[in-house]
């Protein structure tokens, strides 16, 4: 959803009077509320993978009176194109896939060489087919205010010294895609312990599903620094809402993250990001922050885009050594 903001920005630039309504799952609402270009959001009442053809038809029909003139369908599935068709929206735009030509009347062939990045594929749908993209595609940027940040910092007991917290790094160890995208807990704890010893504070962030690895990282940091982590390490995994995670991320100095949703959140609040890529590729979904460093390994089998390592060694992640991450953090901090 975050990279779709680039599309929304371009739509507003080229058609200032357009009204943008986004139909998306409920979990995206905190993101959409931080996008000034979005005028309205509607909750998609279907879970991922559900067809429910009759219910989709009824839902689509219920939107017909809204008077939508254009629908841009970003997911590539057949079922995602059903609702605009049932709603009777005249212009239905999207990339070809799953025989969607039956539902889309501006169904485009995707030249992956021409548009290698996901953000480019979204942005291209703001323009007529075959029109050249602008030289610069606007990066996603979520709206965050100081009161929002102060409220989140106060709730989780992260003190400031008059201004923004200094040398506060967000550690994002989760990877819902699969373990092939996950840097080892030991590497995160080694890196974090080195930074804590140098005076940094650490915030471990993620969903409830990341709680086990986060606790392993926290305990590893504590063991390495040799003292309790009171006031220097905050394990907030599973304790924040998405809105709070956005605000806390905005308060940080840097983020160290796997290729994950939180990496893109950090980028969208323009936080300097050190991004760890294993099975996936920064050529497709890079961090879109103004300042970033991507760490990878040169092994032949990456990127494979497998959720789990087919060889079982996960060398693409394990061989990104902690000292490289520390050096990258300090390099970005010096900027």
From TrEMBL:
The name on file for this protein is lipopolysaccharide heptosyltransferase II
Q: Spell out the InterPro entries in the cross-references.
A: Glyco_trans_9, LPS_LOS_Heptosyltrfase, RfaF
GO biological process terms on file: lipopolysaccharide core region biosynthetic process
- Reaction(s) catalysed (UniProt annotation): an L-alpha-D-Hep-(1->5)-[alpha-Kdo-(2->4)]-alpha-Kdo-(2->6)-lipid A + ADP-L-glycero-beta-D-manno-heptose = an L-alpha-D-Hep-(1->3)-L-alpha-D-Hep-(1->5)-[alpha-Kdo-(2->4)]-alpha-Kdo-(2->6)-lipid A + ADP + H(+)
Gene Ontology molecular function terms on file: ADP-heptose-lipopolysaccharide heptosyltransferase activity
User: What family does the database annotate?
Assistant: Belongs to the glycosyltransferase 9 family.
| Record-level GO cellular component terms | cytosol
A Pfam family cross-referenced in the UniProt record is Glyco_transf_9
NCBIfam families the record matches: heptsyl_trn_II
* EC numbers: 2.4.99.24
Q: Name the enzyme's class.
A: transferase
Keywords in alphabetical order: Glycosyltransferase, Transferase
